Amino acid sequence: MAGLTHVSPSVEAVVAPVTRKRRFSPGRDAVRRFLRHRLAALSVLVLALLALSILVGPWLWRVPINEIDFTARLSPPSWDHPFGTDDLGQDLLSRMIYGGRISLAVGFAAMAVGLCFGIIVGAIAGASRGVVDAALMWLTDLFLSLPQLPLLLLVIYLFRDFLKGWLGPEGGVFVLIVLVIGGFRWMPVARLVRAQFLSLREKEFVEAARALGASNLRLVVRHILPNALGPVIVAGTIDVAAAIIAESTLSFLGLGFPPDIPTWGRLLYDAKDYLDIAPHWALFAGGAIFLTVIAINFIGDGLRDALDPRKVM
């Protein structure tokens, strides 16, 4: 007995470090793998700085967005106007800060709409069999086959005036653009979620939960859907970039926000006639769109590597 009491502390000393090493946190491991993607980590910093400048900028730079100064018309960047001015002498830095909030809000809101609708359609199709699955996939293929840009222009042209009168000029256009862009970005998400469901519903942990008496709703909500969200999050980051580009395209074509609301796309549209004498006007707006989109795409690449189950240590 004395020998056993003498050996047990050494055994505990050996087992304790092994037990500590076996502690595993999927979240920490995913963050570690994400940070190894240097471009993704740098993109998070760039996007955070852009968002911080957009949120804090109005308190640091108090020049009104509609202040007209014809004496400073089309001025290049200077101490008084770090981003220069437009054809009316309006300060481009303040207009960029204001427009950035709208562009990012449209991107993330449209992404949320597309993800919610795509997850619902894909989950129902993946959990169902037979007629429901075939009908939902037929509907998805139908929307994928439609020409998106002409249809976007048609819907905005038909319903813009109605929503403007109901929600106001800015609110109506914002809701319309978010719904239209999100309504045409759910199809890839739905197909991705359905493919994940078809793969996961035959796994051993799902069969075990079904054998224990779990209902179909519980199987979907508690077991299948959480394991299918990794690729969906990656697709969502790409949808943010696509929504920002779509909003910029609509504003560039003159069918986005009104002219007095300076989104990044609207600034590009207004700058197109002055590229030869005031290139700074288009460069700053185009550069902001470029930095935001490429940062979001790199973040999506990093999330894809971090959430890949084949790379779990």
Task: Write a structural description.
This protein is mainly α and 313 residues long. It contains 12 helices and no strands. The protein has helices at 2-22, 26-36, 38-60, 92-127, 131-145, 148-167, 169-183, 187-200, 204-211, 216-252, 264-271, 279-306. The longest helix has 37 residues, at 216-252. The radius of gyration is 26 Å and the shape is globular. The model is unreliable at 1-16 (pLDDT under 50).
SSE string:
HHHHHHHHHHHH
Residue-averaged pLDDT, rounded? Answer: 79
Q: Which class best fits the helix and strand makeup?
A: mainly alpha
Q: Estimate percent helicity.
A: over 70%
Ranges with pLDDT <50 over ≥5 residues? Answer: 1-16
Outline = globular
Let me know the number of strands: 0
Number of helices: 12
* Major β-sheet profile: none
How widely separated are the two ends? 41 Å
Strand percentage lies at under 5%
> If you compute it from the alpha carbons, what radius of gyration comes out, rounded to the nearest whole angstrom?
26 Å
Features:
313 residues; mainly alpha; 12 helices
Give the gist of this structure.
The chain is built from twelve helices and no strands. It has helices spanning 2-22, 26-36, 38-60, 92-127, 131-145, 148-167, 169-183, 187-200, 204-211, 216-252, 264-271, 279-306.
List the helices and strands and how they pair.
Blueprint: H1 2-22, H2 26-36, H3 38-60, H4 92-127, H5 131-145, H6 148-167, H7 169-183, H8 187-200, H9 204-211, H10 216-252, H11 264-271, H12 279-306
